[in-house]
Write a structure and sequence with these properties.
The chain is an alpha+beta fold. It has 11 helices and 10 strands. The strands form 3 sheets. The protein has a 4-stranded mixed beta sheet with strand order 1-4-5-8. It has a 4-stranded antiparallel beta sheet with strand order 2-3-7-6, covered by helices on one side. It has a two-stranded antiparallel ribbon with strand order 9-10. The protein binds acetoacetyl-coenzyme A. Acetoacetyl-coenzyme A binds next to β3, α7 and α11.
């Protein structure tokens, strides 16, 4: 049963993703996490189902799904393996969408079909060691040299950077002093075969350990002029606009993690006996489960309302940030409650809830911290109020 009014296609995709995730991903998710192992066979399996081209039109070998179908599938994958979910979320929401929205016909024809088929994974390189929340202060330089661009700098926190065949990289193309901020940034389509492209440090992470996160070092990386995406100087606007969509994906991932924790807690509370009764019979446990379930349903409802607004072509910056903020803080809170319900068994690796807890944390950090989401929501709310004489009726 679901509160969402889903159409037949959406139900089918949800069911397809659920049965695949439960059959193929659940059993190995813990082992992949312990070994910090990115599993290529998982990529092949998800590619066969078309999951790397969920939002790509059929003419480019994609499934051409709507945003809600995509988010439903992501939730199911995240319930089973949050590392697999971030791979799908970043690939589908960021690089693929950027090429679809801003690429030339030639760029779309060259990159989208292999990306949609899962033959080339897409990554997103905006952050740098010194430019995280303040992404507009990035320092990676792109200098023209004949028909080429030469890129120099270090990109950081690139999800599955070591596995990607296509990396959308933001770099500064305007070097005049009055262009230090977010203006004068452009987007380039990088491939790992370019001279001067090097994989850097692999991060050792608290969670999402089966998803490799890397630095990328660009050491005079020579990029053909044909790899500039869209208009020169518009790269930051493209990146932030794409993050509006990316944040919906992270919200879905967070909801999946939270749901996995709730489902595990419900099962455990129905079996675990203390004081002569299943702990599910105690009101202290029941109230926790009530709040967990309510927050998850509220997060999913907000997310899918935002996705429906996106499908209608509306500006969703405010609602995307709200959905991401609420869903990710829900995931952290719900996984914390789940560990508490499990007690000592929640603190050890015999059960998966400690992994859910570790995986949830990063959703409050990447693709914009909770603090950045609050800044975006405040700005957008003030603007909406000013535009409607103080009325905020949505
Ligand atoms: N959509 C489209 N354009 C947007 C936009 C949006 N949502 N938000 C802002 N813009 C435009 C503005 O209109 C402005 O355009 P003009 O220059 O033409 O006027 C331009 O972008 C700059 O906007 P701001 O002045 O608002 O920029 P700012 O420097 O004040 O930054 C910010 C705003 C919200 C703090 C932004 O920097 C931000 O979101 N920071 C967080 C970055 C982030 O999410 N990083 C995650 C990286 S990905 C990752 O996590 C790794 C991974 O692989 C998962």
């Amino acid at each position: 049963m679901t509160l969402l009014a889903l159409n037949e296609t959406q139900k089918e995709i949800q069911q397809l993703a659920r049965s695949f995730a439960q059959r193929e991903l659940v059993a190995l998710a813990g082992e992949r996490d312990r070994e910090s192992r990115f599993d290529r066979s998982m990529v092949t399996q998800m590619a066969e189902l078309g999951f790397f081209g969920m939002l790509v039109p059929e003419r480019f070998d994609g499934l051409g799904l709507d945003a809600q179908s995509y988010l439903l599938a992501l939730e199911e994958i995240a319930v089973a393996d949050a590392s697999a979910a971030v791979l799908l979320s970043v690939h589908n929401s960021l690089p693929t969408q950027m090429i679809l929205n801003f690429g030339t016909v030639e760029q779309q024809q060259e990159f989208l079909p292999p990306m949609a088929r899962g033959e080339q994974l897409g990554a997103f390189a905006l952050s740098e060691p010194e430019a995280g929340s303040d992404a507009g202060s990035l320092r990676c330089q792109a200098v023209r040299d004949g028909d080429d661009w030469v890129l120099t700098g270090t990109k950081a926190w690139v999800s599955h950077g070591s596995e990607a065949g296509v990396i959308l990289c933001m770099a500064r193309t305007d070097h005049s002093d009055d262009r230090r901020g977010s203006k004068g940034i452009s987007t380039f389509i990088l491939t790992p075969d370019l001279p001067g492209f090097h994989l850097g440090k692999k991060e050792s992470k608290m969670g999402l350990r089966a998803s490799p996160t890397l630095q990328i070092n660009l050491d005079g990386c020579r990029v053909p002029g044909s790899r500039l995406l869209g208009a020169e100087g518009k790269g930051f606007v493209y990146a932030l606009g794409s993050l509006d969509h990316g944040r919906l994906g992270i919200a879905s991932q967070a909801i999946g993690i939270a749901r996995a924790a709730l489902e595990a807690a419900v099962r455990y509370a129905g079996e675990r006996k203390q004081f002569g009764r299943n702990i599910a019979e105690f009101q202290a446990i029941q109230f926790k489960m009530s709040d967990m379930a309510t927050r998850i349903t509220a997060a999913r409802t907000l997310l899918h309302a935002a996705a429906a607004a996106k499908e209608r072509g509306e500006n969703i910056t405010r609602f995307s940030s709200m959905a991401k903020l609420f869903a990710t803080e829900t995931a952290m809170w719900v996984t914390t409650q789940a560990v508490q319900i499990f007690g000592g068994y929640g603190y050890v690796t015999d059960y998966p809830v400690e992994r859910y807890f570790r995986d949830a944390k990063v959703t409050e950090i990447y693709e914009g911290t909770s603090e950045i989401q609050r800044i975006v929501i405040a700005r957008e709310t003030l603007a909406a109020a000013a535009a409607a004489d103080g009325t905020l009726s949505d």
